Amino acid sequence: MPRVPGTKTGRNAELGLLALAMIIVAAYGATVEANQFDKITPTFWVPAALLSALFVALHLVVRFTALYADPVLIPTVALINGLGVGFLRRLDLARAIAQKQPEPGIFAGVGGRQLAWTLAALVLAAVLLIVIRDHKTVSRYAYTLGLVGIVLVMIPAVLPASISEINGARLWIRIGSFSIQPGEFAKLALVSFFAYYLVRKREVLSLASRRVLGVDFPRGRDLGPVITVWMLSLLVLVFEKDLGTALLYFGLFVVTLYVATERVSWLIIGLVMFFGGVYVAYLLGASVGGPFANFYDRATVWLDPFAAENYNRVGGSYQLVQSLLGLGTGGLFGTGPGAGSPSKVPEVRTDFIFAGMGEEIGLFGLSALLICYLLIVERGLRAALGVRDSFGKLVAGGLAFTLGLQVFVILGGITGLIPLTGQTTPFLSAGGSSLMANWLLIAMLLRISDAGRRPASGGPAPSSGGPKQPPAQLHGAMTEVIKP
Amino acid sequence: MPEFVLTVARFGFLILLWIFVFTVVGVIRKDLFAGVRSKSLVASPRGVGGVVPQGRPAKAKRGKAARQLVVTAGQLAGTKITLGEAQITIGRAEDSTLVITDDFASARHARLVPRDGQWFVEDLGSTNGTYLDRGKVSGPTPVPLGVPIRIGRTSLELRP
């Protein structure tokens, strides 16, 4: 892609920020070793150097395929991803010391596997950037993607529990010691489908309405798709026993709908429907039990985690209490990387990784990480504002919102703000599916932000050589702006 | 390891984290105000710099390079296009740079062309015409900054 002379691409800023992020990851590794071994080994920089090589490779791919992409996304995500790898490696080191084993190799243990997953995720992101040169091409496969998304969500629910169930939630496909979480990838497919559907139906949804109490409410017949998705997410809630994922899909749909139509009434309808559904599920769990029992359990644990009967029960509030105590021990500045005892928190590698890190870096460090997430979401929304086609706007807005909502669901869970549900913390938790899906999400945001930031070239975005493609239907969609 | 070194490492790491956050915010900030402050973000049509007459600050606005095309009225109000060195086509056709869905706009309605540091608006034989401020555009007409170009219900302006 040729660079328009005299324009700023932001690529050098990206490289600089990336270097800073990797210095922080190396500093984290060094501090961990200083606290764990009482000395800094000569190889403390190796994981950070390997990560740097990977991220710089992605940076080069961006230079060649998405020259004008947002410069902030990659470094911020790289920092979170790198600290995740560092923290998992720190857990491996602690275990090796406790069991009097030698220091684990770079690719050994959970930290090493996370490093390998990062490699795989970055390769996928690079492939997406290379293959999809114009985000509008995705809209041609929207219905296929929608079907794929629903199938991915449904697979764990129909598989026998022995394959799909871990800790009471059925979200996985397990083959031997290897497990993938198809729901993570479903997010991407569903966002693309929702965006395409809403670009086509937007006029109907936003024009025909009745005015009640100063808010425009849509006609009953237009509620069809919303009710379908609502039912679907409640089915997920009941059969996969996972409130977080249900909230994620439903919230995603409602927000895309809101962005497409600029109608506050959709948000009101969505919130009322979701909380209504959850409350009914809670009451059903209390009286009938059955498929709602798990949800009722989680809600009671959330309402009073320190009650003795909740704490002592199997599957009770033990996890949540340990997480809260860990965060409390950390206090304002934390115990220092490597000086805490995160192994006391259950599931500290996946769901509770933020509690484990919080003990060591304190509120001060956690807020910095949270702001990094906030900045990623903000850049995603900025890409949505910048790009000129409706499909791109809805996809970027939807993806950015999903990421933010997922961080909210898991962090709200481990801090006791909302009932705890097993979501991964994007880019931080151990797990390949989550890492790969979220890096794909970032690649898509990079692609869209590139389209939005490129200076106008007098025509549509250049297709990657070859004969001129016939315009996809969405090229005809009107150009407009999502009002802030 | 002496306690002192560990304390320095612990707080040093947190400070580094926040330095990163603020650096990122700085980059974003520069990006936000790019159209207003940065002189080199987008190429202006060549030869603009020297046109400004000396000692006439009141009219300096006229000599400034147009960097953005802003839609001020109509369905697309708020849309901004950063100007490069290529022409901007406006119309309902899908391949226009600015696609407007205005009942009074033609498929290929008008175009904006940079020539010797000045942007010119040219009507492409539209049904309802293109207006620069109040006057109808018949041939290539230079567009001063901040003067509305009207196409149907849509209004556009060049901004520095």
How are the secondary structure elements laid out?
The complex is a heterodimer of chains A (484) and B (160).
Chain A: H1 11-37, H2 46-65, H3 73-98, H4 109-131, H5 142-158, H6 161-164, E1 165-166, E2 169-170, E3 173-175, E4 178-180, H7 182-207, E5 209-212, E6 215-218, H8 224-239, H9 243-261, H10 264-287, H11 293-303, H12 308-312, H13 318-330, H14 353-386, H15 390-414, H16 432-453
Antiparallel strand pairs in A: 1-2, 3-4, 5-6
Helix pairs in contact in A: 1-2, 1-3, 2-3, 2-4, 3-4, 3-14, 4-16, 5-7, 7-9, 7-15, 7-16, 8-9, 9-10, 9-15, 10-11, 13-14, 14-15, 14-16, 15-16
Chain B: H1 3-32, H2 60-63, E1 68-73, E2 80-82, E3 88-91, E4 98-99, E5 110-115, E6 118-123, E7 131-132, E8 135-136, E9 141-142, E10 149-151, E11 154-159
Parallel strand pairs in B: 3-4
Antiparallel strand pairs in B: 1-2, 1-11, 3-5, 5-6, 6-9, 7-8, 7-10, 10-11
Transmembrane segments (chain B): 6-28
Keywords (chain B): Membrane, Phosphoprotein, Transmembrane, Transmembrane helix
Domain FHA (chain B): 88-137
